[in-house]
C-alpha cells in the first residue's frame, strides 16, 4: 500500500530535482487554482508561479532535505512539511521550511498550496 | 471581510498562548480525526495528542512567532505555516517550523493536520 509518506518522498525528490535543474519546468506541478506564498508574497495560477521561480535572481541552487513529514488531509490530498537547507550560487546553505498541500488528480498529485520561508535565526 | 491571514493570526496567538500556559487545554483545538506529527512521531485523536503534549519533559515553554503565512485550502479550510523560536525552561531559544491544516466547524476552526519540527542547523 502506498502511504502518504511514500507519495511525499517521491514528490519532494522530483520537486527539488526539477527546481535545482530547470525551474521553468515546475509549472507542470501547479494548476490555475494553485497558490504559492514565497517569503510572504503570494502568487496564484501556474503562469505567475512559474514567472516568480524563473525570475529568482540566482543561477545555481541546490536543496538538501533534512526532514520530510506527511499526513493525509483527505482521501485525495496530503499535507507535506519539509525542512532543509538550500545553497545559492555556491554560498553557505540557508535553512528553509516549506509546506505543500497536494491534491490528487487522476494518478498523480499537484500542488494546491505552497508556502515557503527561509529560517534565518533571530 | 475576514481573510485566511486574519483567522490564522487569531488561531496562532491562541494556540501558542494555550501551549505556553496550559498544554492540557490544547485538546479543545483538536478532534478525534486530527493528527499530530511531532518530530517524526504521529499521534492521532485528541486524547493521544493531549497525552503527548502533557508528557513533554519540560515545565516552562515560550513560543515566539517569526513568520506566519496562510492560504485558503478550500472554502472551509486553511493551511498555516509558522516559523519561530521556542525557549524551554529558560534555555536559549531553538528555531522551529509548524504547519497546520485548519478545518471550519460552525463558527470556529479546529486542527485537522499538525506537523512540527525543530530546525536544528547542520
TrEMBL record, chains A, B:
CDD domains: NTF2. Keywords: Cytoplasm, Nucleus, Protein transport, Transport. The keyword Methyltransferase does not apply. The keyword Cytoplasm applies. GO terms for biological process: mRNA transport; protein import into nucleus. Pfam families: NTF2 (PF02136). GO terms for cellular component: cytoplasm; nuclear envelope. Has a role in nuclear-cytoplasmic transport of proteins and mRNAs. This is Nuclear transport factor 2. It comes from Tulasnella calospora MUT 4182.
Amino acid at each position: 500500500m502506498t502511504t502518504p509518506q511514500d507519495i511525499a518522498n517521491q514528490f519532494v525528490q522530483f520537486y527539488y530535482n526539477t527546481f535545482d535543474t530547470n525551474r521553468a519546468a515546475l509549472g507542470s506541478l501547479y494548476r490555475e487554482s494553485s497558490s504559492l506564498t514565497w517569503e510572504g508574497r503570494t502568487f496564484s495560477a501556474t503562469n505567475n508561479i512559474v514567472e516568480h521561480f524563473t525570475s529568482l535572481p540566482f543561477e545555481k541552487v541546490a536543496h538538501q532535505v533534512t526532514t520530510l513529514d506527511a499526513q493525509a488531509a483527505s482521501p485525495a490530498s496530503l499535507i507535506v512539511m519539509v525542512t532543509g537547507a538550500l545553497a545559492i550560487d555556491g554560498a553557505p546553505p540557508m535553512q528553509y521550511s516549506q509546506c505543500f498541500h497536494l491534491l490528487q488528480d487522476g494518478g498523480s498529485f499537484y500542488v494546491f498550496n505552497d508556502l515557503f520561508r527561509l529560517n534565518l535565526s533571530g
